[in-house]
Amino acid sequence: MAITGVLRPGHAQIRVLDLEESVKWYTDVMGLKPMGRDAQGRAYFKTRAERDHNSVVLRQADQAGLDFFGFKVLDKATLDDLEQKLQAFGVKTERIPAGEMLETGERVRFNVPTGHTIELYAEKTNVGNATGCLNPEVDVIDTPGITPIRMDHCLLYGGDLDGTKELFEKVLGFNLVERVKLEDGKTDLGIWLTCSAKAHDIAFVRHAEDSKLHHVSFQLSSWEQVLRAADIMSKNRVSIDVSPTRHGVTNGTTIYFFDPSGNRLETFCGGYDHYPDMEPITWTWDEVGAGIFYHNRKLNDAFLSVVT
Amino acid sequence: MAITGVLRPGHAQIRVLDLEESVKWYTDVMGLKPMGRDAQGRAYFKTRAERDHNSVVLRQADQAGLDFFGFKVLDKATLDDLEQKLQAFGVKTERIPAGEMLETGERVRFNVPTGHTIELYAEKTNVGNATGCLNPEVDVIDTPGITPIRMDHCLLYGGDLDGTKELFEKVLGFNLVERVKLEDGKTDLGIWLTCSAKAHDIAFVRHAEDSKLHHVSFQLSSWEQVLRAADIMSKNRVSIDVSPTRHGVTNGTTIYFFDPSGNRLETFCGGYDHYPDMEPITWTWDEVGAGIFYHNRKLNDAFLSVVT
Amino acid sequence: MAITGVLRPGHAQIRVLDLEESVKWYTDVMGLKPMGRDAQGRAYFKTRAERDHNSVVLRQADQAGLDFFGFKVLDKATLDDLEQKLQAFGVKTERIPAGEMLETGERVRFNVPTGHTIELYAEKTNVGNATGCLNPEVDVIDTPGITPIRMDHCLLYGGDLDGTKELFEKVLGFNLVERVKLEDGKTDLGIWLTCSAKAHDIAFVRHAEDSKLHHVSFQLSSWEQVLRAADIMSKNRVSIDVSPTRHGVTNGTTIYFFDPSGNRLETFCGGYDHYPDMEPITWTWDEVGAGIFYHNRKLNDAFLSVVT
Amino acid sequence: MAITGVLRPGHAQIRVLDLEESVKWYTDVMGLKPMGRDAQGRAYFKTRAERDHNSVVLRQADQAGLDFFGFKVLDKATLDDLEQKLQAFGVKTERIPAGEMLETGERVRFNVPTGHTIELYAEKTNVGNATGCLNPEVDVIDTPGITPIRMDHCLLYGGDLDGTKELFEKVLGFNLVERVKLEDGKTDLGIWLTCSAKAHDIAFVRHAEDSKLHHVSFQLSSWEQVLRAADIMSKNRVSIDVSPTRHGVTNGTTIYFFDPSGNRLETFCGGYDHYPDMEPITWTWDEVGAGIFYHNRKLNDAFLSVVT
């Protein structure tokens, strides 16, 4: 098959400080569709366009951050195969039973060298999107909230970037799309990886502390929708980290902002397609500013320091 | 690997009635970059954003149409493997030697049941895109011509749709994304297939005559670029078949128009991502109009009849 | 003062065949805000962005069409002055008492040579727009319906185009912005007139029958909003006359479509600013197609024949 | 007439530190059309869409800033009338002879209470825009540079805001569209004025020092053109003050950036229409941040301090 193995980002479990406030915010401001709560009290969401039951899970906790980030794989045989490969690579894996998350099959959970918990799973109930699979109408945005297309990717911060890169490339079949180099011209400061033809399905930045979340990103359909998202944020007094601009890396347009718990989120549009025969793009240290924020060509203080 | 086998559409060889006029038109109106001519007199083009040496090849002939459509595969081992699978499936294959097309490696050529000639190849010289792989600037459109991002897909007309569908799915690993049914509710009138996560890499419509081209499509970055393309077409007196509108199938926005030889081309933007775990979308016969042209909800006469 | 006399189009009274169906349609599909009904049973609407109480009035009748089109003038002194000038020009005027239309002051009504009833008025209650005049938020579109910015202009059909042109220019102070000539190169087929710096506040086309409505137009903010409008129309099975395209005249982007009674409406975006020192643009008969529909460069049959 | 008196901003004479460098920059980066130089060595420019001979004049000087800002008035009788009214209001006026600026008629020059030099003129040679007045094609942007539609307005800083406001309203017939109040809730910090139906033709901010320029603004056609402008700026290493965002005041989208001499310029899109019957919008001191930069809801340091 032409696309196989790991398919795409499937779910992100985010820790929030006040669940009820957060449920309201992810519903009203983000425009996500609430999909119910489980016995542990976790709240589930999907976008209007996503077909699987959930993509964002909120868990009340004392500290914001990301519990885990899950990828859907092609099928159960792929799940077994990837678990075996992980173990052969020396990664300890854990099986989370089907049903532990709502409408989600068995998950293979493991930690990557940057400390983050990653999951693979093959099954999540297809509940269909807002328009269905038979003579679908176009899904016009006509409700409050940002209403992204999908939960798209995340950017994670941690120490052993090289180890995580090796694991994603060699075991999970991801390809390197872009990277930013440190002053030495050799060490990677940041890496952007894809498991499909997207400009990124996950990214990592080298950081003193492990297991940190920089942002979870949601896809929008156009630069005008990026503007609409920023207008909605302002109207709702959302704390905006970086207002509409373009990334040099991926060429995508972006807004960085914070949920009520201080988790950074992104609304993102564009980005070129990357295929495995393509050479990765490299950004040198002196141009890292343009790589991250193309218009201002400099990092803001928060980009390298504020994480959850 | 997560993406493997057949990667993407790589080249389309189009027959034109007047080569010099066509070279000028594909350069000035389409905004493609001329990449030279070969000993046979064929003219090669790529877009600014494409990295491989060529994607459109024009050959002078007495009749317009498509000579062949080629897909790039992951590597030479994949090429050998797919050739073997084609032969095992009963498909006769031919090896075209490296260099027969400019800067292109050995190709495996075969006919599909609808009569079209398809090629697979693993190597085409990476000449880089307009911005390169080191600290790239954003590539601003600032030259005449439509300037698409890439040669994106084609739609072909022929008789044995079922046979071609089976070959693309079973041998080449393509997935069915959408289909339109005939009045009987069973027979496919049209099928849209992907080898990656795009809404289509190739499509076929059932037609009395084999080996016909409906259109070759070029990707644009936004609905505003679709408008700019239509303005450029009008200014250059390009014959427009269908002015800017949206497809129900794929949700993409589109213009259909004709090159000076009468080959239909498309400029296309958008389209959702399709993964192999997703159920295909089905359009019934009574809604085929909305499937093809979402706004007017009816086919124009040319759609089903005018092919080259 | 820099802008004086006639300010802008203020209201259009449209005849509909089924009032209740029409009220629902203008609310749900057009996204207008219902503003109440009067003793005669007429239904009033405004857009979210308009500040005056109403801009669209629907009246149940046996035949579709336009009862009258009203312009707001600067103040009551201007109203008196313009009435006097109309009478001096030989135009019979009628005073409609304040309150005959909801929240609307006294109107001066008269017929123009093409047979249409035009009104001038100085007062309509300022009920404010959706965001107010104190620290207003941006008004994000987040409800169903097309949600135009304002009722923008109309295009009317009738016989004595020259007489109407003279009246609007000489008495009401309008300026000619563009015109289309007939085959003789002299006679005007169509004229576009402005009372401000817009590309058109009203337009007329020469036609065998007097007093006809070609369309009432509503302004949208962007080409993407034009696409959204077309999507909403298709989803609601609105009869579309001309799907998204660009006019050569005014350069605006457009959709022509019909309300449930067969009145043609337009959603319109763009158009350059015209000042009184600027020479009008002229379209010759052989280029009238490009003038009206820039992409296809030809008129559709309906444009010259279907009116209400 | 419906629009009379002062028509629109016509020319801005800007001081630059290195004329040759600036001519190159306004041509290549701004995408303005060079229109020649006069005997004094001043360099003239217009946009592709402007019909009058020039709108931007560059003069080499030791210090950046604005020499004067000129408005075109309806005709010579208006010019005489407005000069008389200025003198009656106690404003000293000066006549600059026709031809002192290239292709420009006699100008009436005067100073306003904030110290700025303003000019009125009735004549500037109509050289036509890029597409002409007979069967014009749409003007597709296909050249390097930002390529704005027109020189649109300016924002000036000075002390006696109240005096300048009175002069523009009472003598020149401008209308107040929006204002920002100081902490006392009474004093205007900033005022936005129009002579037509635009959201602003000129604006002023209260400032300790007189005669200062905050920015000269150029109009773009869409939010996507704002993005293209920002990309061009980055590619050309233009110093960007504020990257793409939205103003609360006027609702327009914007970029603030600096020419090579440190003069702040703006590329601007949108803004609602204002008519003289409309109440001005007021921003209170606590919401001034949202008024100026709607997304971040706070002023950057440069906005109130950096002027030329």
Care to give the gist of this entry?
Four copies of one chain form a homotetramer. Chain A is α/β, with parallel strands linked by helices.
Indicate the proportion of strand residues of chain A: 25-35%
Interface with most residues: A-B, 52 and 52 residues
CATH architecture of the largest domain in chain A: Roll
Helix content of chain A: 10-25%
Terminal residue distance of chain A? 38 Å
- Give the SSE string of chain A: EHEEEEHEEEEHEEEEHEEEEHH
CATH homologous group name of the largest domain in chain A = 2,3-Dihydroxybiphenyl 1,2-Dioxygenase, domain 1
CATH class of the largest domain in chain A: Alpha Beta
Spatial shape of chain A: globular
Low confidence ranges of chain A: none
What does the radius of gyration of chain A come to? 18 Å
How many separate domains of chain A?
2
Sheet/helix structural class of chain A: alpha/beta
The oligomeric status of these chains comes to: homotetramer
- Mean pLDDT value of chain A: 96
**Largest sheet geometry of chain A:** 9 strands, mixed
User: Any idea of the CATH topology of the largest domain in chain A?
Assistant: 2,3-Dihydroxybiphenyl 1,2-Dioxygenase, domain 1
SS element count, helices of chain A: 6
Structure description:
Four copies of one chain form a homotetramer. Chain A is of the alpha/beta class and 308 residues long. Chain A has two domains: 6-121, Roll (2,3-Dihydroxybiphenyl 1,2-Dioxygenase, domain 1), CATH 3.10.180; 150-299, 2,3-Dihydroxybiphenyl 1,2-Dioxygenase, domain 1, CATH 3.10.180. Helix content of chain A is 19%, strand content 34%. Chains A and B meet through β1 and β17 of A and β1 and β17 of B. Chains A, B, C, D: Belongs to the extradiol ring-cleavage dioxygenase family.
